[in-house]
Amino acid sequence: MTQDSFTHPNSEARERAVQFLYQSECERLFHFSDSHFSQFIENFKIAPKVAQISRGMVEGIYDELPRIDETISGVSVNWSIDRMASTDRCVLRVATWELMHKGTPTKVVINEAIELAKKYGTEHSGSFVNGLLDKIATLVAEPL
To answer: How many domains, the chain?
Structure first.
């Protein structure tokens, strides 16, 4: 397998988490649903390892959604969480949750979020997400 054709399970899990959150928003489901997630995994034939990582992310995001949204809103000027494009909001939620849990290097989280924002958002999504995540990374790095 060449380097170009390999996607790290964590990278794929981030993307799947964004997709699941987006689908949930479209379906107006604002909490974690095991049956909904299982159907998502089955429909997209997601590998078990990726599904496990993605599930952990999505469950964690829903468990901490008010705190995550408050963090995002706190660094966003002129853009309430509800006014943001839903794809940007989903990317920001995944990345913010991951930054708060400090298991992945900040640079990796931000770079992958920017790429996901570019892939699923508008031409301005990458820079929008980058600007907010830079501020969030600074916030979560400070001792409480």
So the answer is: 1
Residue 83 vs residues 21, 87, 88: alpha-carbon distances, Å: 16, 11, 10
Which residue type is seen at 113? A
Q: Residue 110 to residues 30, 45, 49, 102: CA-CA distances in angstroms?
A: 25, 27, 22, 12
CATH of the domain at 44: 1.10.940.10
Strand (E) positions, 2-143?
none
DSSP 3: G
| pLDDT < 50 stretches in the chain | 1-4, 144
**Mind listing the pLDDT tens digit for each residue in 41-81?**
999 999 999 999 999 999 999 999 999 999 999 999 888 89
